[in-house]
Amino acid sequence: MTTSKPLALACLLALSARAADNALPINPQGSNPSDARRTAIVVATEKAAPSVVSITVRRSAVVAYGNPFFQDPFFDLFGPQYRRKEMSSLGSGVIVSKEGYILTNSHVVGGGEEGGELEGITVTLPDGRQLQAKLIGADGANDLAVVKIKAPDLPVASLQEKPDNLIGEWVVAIGNPYGYLIGDTKPTVTVGVISAVNRSFSSNSDIHYHNMIQTDASINPGNSGGALVNADGKVIGINTFIFTGGGQSQGSIGLGFAIPIQKAKLVMDELIKYGRIREFTTGIYADPNIDENRPGVAVAGVDRGSPGEKSGLKVGDLIYEVAGKRIATLQDIQDVFKLFQVGESVEIQFQRGNEKRKTSILLEEKPHKTKIF
Fold it and tell me: How many other β-carbons are positioned within 10 Å of the β-carbon of residue 47?
């Protein structure tokens, strides 16, 4: 049986129309037209935003001020004049437990350049509640801090368990760039993608940022300590800093960075349990003498029963890469290990004779009278 061309064309058009209907569904009769607006971004925001809070930190310091009588030398006899200066700063935080623990940045609760004594911390929830918070601890080297509030029915963020972030996937940055000064306690939401992962930086203030998540979602001053959230509504990072355009341009230019939530949680657990970040040891001693013909650091000694011995390293091994960083000097290896803490595993590549090998070393708490690598 043959089919005429007009009939075949009619069937093709009918099939095309049916396929188009399936590809671009129209809201069926009786459905809510607004359902089409409830994207994954909206749902993720609804899940995470209630747990992102505004943090107001109050500090005070005694400062000297100038001669109130201009340059009259008579009044210099009375010495400098002092007064107590009150200061406040704003930031963001994420409620991560029903007990009221909040993750934020150390620079949010710290004294910064002005220093001063901590007078108090106020946390404002998106539902309008204002609560006094206690500083549990701060880790300046990793720019993380933990504060705690007490209240019933706290909204708790859902945290990503494993770092399976995808470059190019949608993310939401949630924070309080103006605190609650704009008359609304609800946080601000910006959207972007994950631009890169595993970015590492060190600052002049001895802060070491490791494996940072880079995003082009707008992050501005006051967003620090807020949440970077994936499309599942899970917190994948703590928004920390941005690169600006320099000069008068202080806003976001699409280069924002967040500390991975796995690292933040590790620091938080240390601060809650010990009130500090414990020192670690590798049990490995390095030869400070560098052979220019063999770039890397030679192992000069390994303590018995130490993490170094458990990893299989031996005297004479030449370490040339740690955590993906090339090692040329003893300073290089010391700088890399500053990025880690007790309980973390560090990948090491080394050469034994003419053979290149790979191992991992699990960092343990430093016993007394033991050197850190």
Answer: 18
Whole-prediction pTM value? 0.74
How far is 235 from 228, CA to CA, in rounded Å? 6
Of the candidates 93, 86, 94, which has an alpha carbon nearest to the alpha carbon of residue 117? 86
- Choose the catalytic residue: 107, 210, 218, 332: 107
**Residue 108 · residue 92 · CB < 8 Å:** yes
Report the C-alpha gap between 363 and 272 in whole angstroms: 19
Active site (annotated) includes residue 210: no
Active-site residue, selected from the candidate residues 54, 195, 224, 252:
224
107 is a catalytic site residue:
yes
Told to judge if 224 belongs to the known catalytic residues of this protein, a careful annotator would answer yes
Burial classification of residue 166, based on how many CB atoms lie within 10 Å of its CB (0-12 exposed, 13-18 middle, 19 or more buried): exposed
Among 89, 92, 106, 143, which one carries the catalytic annotation? 143
Radius of gyration for the alpha carbons in the chain, expressed in angstroms and rounded: 28
Say if residues 263 and 235 touch (Cβ distance below 8 Å): no
Tens of pLDDT along the chain (373 residues)?
A: 444 444 333 333 333 333 334 333 434 444 565 677 889 999 999 999 999 999 999 988 777 665 555 555 655 655 666 677 777 888 999 999 999 999 999 999 986 555 678 899 999 999 999 999 999 999 988 899 999 999 999 999 999 998 899 999 999 999 987 665 666 788 999 999 999 998 877 666 667 788 899 999 988 778 889 999 999 999 999 999 876 545 444 555 568 899 999 999 999 999 999 888 888 999 999 887 777 777 789 999 999 999 999 999 999 999 999 988 899 888 888 888 877 889 889 999 999 999 999 999 999 998 865 555 5
| Domains assigned to the chain | 50-148 (2.40.10.10), 170-270 (2.40.10.10), 280-365 (2.30.42.10)
Euclidean distance between CA atoms 173 and 217, whole angstroms: 6
Cα–Cα distances in angstroms (integers) from residue 276 to residues 55, 200, 342, in the given order: 22, 23, 12
